[in-house]
Amino acid sequence: MTGYPKINLDGALVAITGAARGIGLATAEQFVAAGACVAIGDLDGGLAKEAADRLGVRASGHDLDVTDKESFAAFLAAAEAHHGRPLDVLVNNAGIMPNGPFLEMTEAMDRRQMDINVHGVIHGLRLALPGMIERGHGHVVNVASLAGKFPLKGLAVYNGTKFAVVGLSAAVRLELEDTGVSLSTVLPSAVNTELSSGIDMGALPCVEPEDIAAAVVRSVRSRTAEIAVPGYLGALTKTVPLLPEGVMRRVRHLLKDDAAISAVDPAVRKIYLDRINKQ
Ligand SMILES: NC(=O)c1ccc[n+]([C@@H]2O[C@H](COP(=O)([O-])OP(=O)(O)OC[C@H]3O[C@@H](n4cnc5c(N)ncnc54)[C@H](O)[C@@H]3O)[C@@H](O)[C@H]2O)c1
Prior knowledge:
The protein is built from 10 helices and 9 strands. By secondary structure, the protein is an alpha/beta fold. Nicotinamide-adenine-dinucleotide (NAD) is lined by residues 17-18, 20-24, 42-44, 64-67, 93-97, 116, 120, 143, 145, 188, 190-191, 193-196, 279.
């Protein structure tokens, strides 16, 4: 994509939220392999530091709660101090996905999802963008979801948070025009991590965290606005909304679109839900 100053990943500083495990960790690994310095921030700071130790001298691990703006600011400051250079790339990746019928979800968990999945991203943008704009150089990747384009039964509030991130990202990208700073939104299908564990997503394609990581790293060069993974689902995000509701209902029925309610292994799912409840 022309119009943006090139970001050379060799020695660049990349900060990634929620990177102690899953997609964030795979992304940290691929940025380090591409020559970048990586700051791993996570609510699970111990695990973040262990991950950084494994990745070597170009990685650092930090405590981070993306819902707390001061904690986020301290994370970015510590990343720049540790690696001795300003931030080149921020990956807003931290997120949670409780599942179940809308009317059975608790208000506390609704608010937690909004706080992490939406306000966490807003905090990251407000903290990282001013410096990037001043330098005329930088890239932000928001890890949203195809659930930010397609509603799914059993994930209503999660859908709401991801639709919010998709809209927020598109509008901020417009405001960044002519600043030299770019913003890409990555839209993964189901990904093989703890977040989706215990749910048989049926017809929904399931990819590996490394596939999302590769898309995030590629976006530093392409600066593409929205990147679906797998890529062919990108075309569906544009055509499916055009289908009449009756047709969609039949297709959804065939695809078993209520997997997040009806295709759940409670014992496996409980491990993930216990973790996010405890966190
Ligand atoms: N796994 C999927 O099927 C899938 C599909 C589409 C989109 N996504 C999105 O990808 C992102 C990463 O998901 P994942 O599958 O790797 O999940 P994961 O549960 O494996 O990892 C998420 C990490 O975020 C951390 N985290 C949670 N709350 C935090 C907070 N307040 N501050 C800092 N860190 C926090 C957790 O400790 C965890 O290490 C999320 O935004 C998720 O919505 C995942």
